[in-house]
Amino acid sequence: MNTYSVTTCRFCLPGRWKTLWVTFVLLLICSGSRSAVATELAMLQSLTPEETTAEVSEVVVRKNERRMFLMAGDEVLRSYRIGLGDNPSGHKLYEGDERTPEGEYTLDWRNANSDFYKSIHISYPNEKDRELASAWGLNPGGSIMIHGLPNDAEGMEFAYLGLDWTDGCIAVSNQEMDEIWALVSDGTPIRILP
């Protein structure tokens, strides 16, 4: 389980860990990283007590609705408006088709230093995806992620939100990506529906 998991919320940590976290925050503030600290604290303060103790059991994406849901069993913990690939209808068939895949996958690893504001990898392609692409003599592609905005989008965020602009990934705002990063553990299943 990663250090940002729901069950290890910084506000729920035992005294020793809470003291270490406060020390870390103070060091960041003193080193001039006020904006990063402010973003992290705002995200944590926006979580309800139920969200800090409920574990995300699954992520569900409904492509036609452009919505992504963080689920705890049958309960929706969070809902986000998403952007998809430039060609969003249908299942991803090959690299470069700019479609977002459909099916059941796993969120299997994350990258804090990606070309976009944080990214969590979706385990596409699975064996079925590889077989389908191979039958057509095509490469299924990969590197499908949930991520925030491009790192160079500062001041232009409005130009991305609510639009399909990725090459097949699932995009959210940077603030929403901070929440997802904190609430979703590696190994969480993701179901992407048409």
Structural topology:
Layout: H1 15-30, H2 34-46, H3 49-53, E1 58-62, E2 67-72, E3 75-81, E4 103-111, E5 119-122, H4 127-135, E6 145-147, E7 170-171, H5 174-183, E8 188-193
Parallel strand pairs: 1-8, 6-7
Antiparallel strand pairs: 1-2, 2-3, 4-5, 4-8, 5-6
Describe this structure in words.
It comes from Marinobacter confluentis. Keywords: Cell shape, Cell wall biogenesis/degradation, Peptidoglycan synthesis, Transferase. By secondary structure, this protein is α+β, with helices and mostly antiparallel strands. It has 2 domains: 47 residues, no CATH class; 138 residues, Beta Barrel (L,D-transpeptidase catalytic domain-like). Strands 3-2-1-8-4-5-6-7 form an 8-stranded mixed beta sheet, with helices on one face. Helix 2 crosses helix 5. It starts with 14 loop residues before the first helix and ends with a strand.
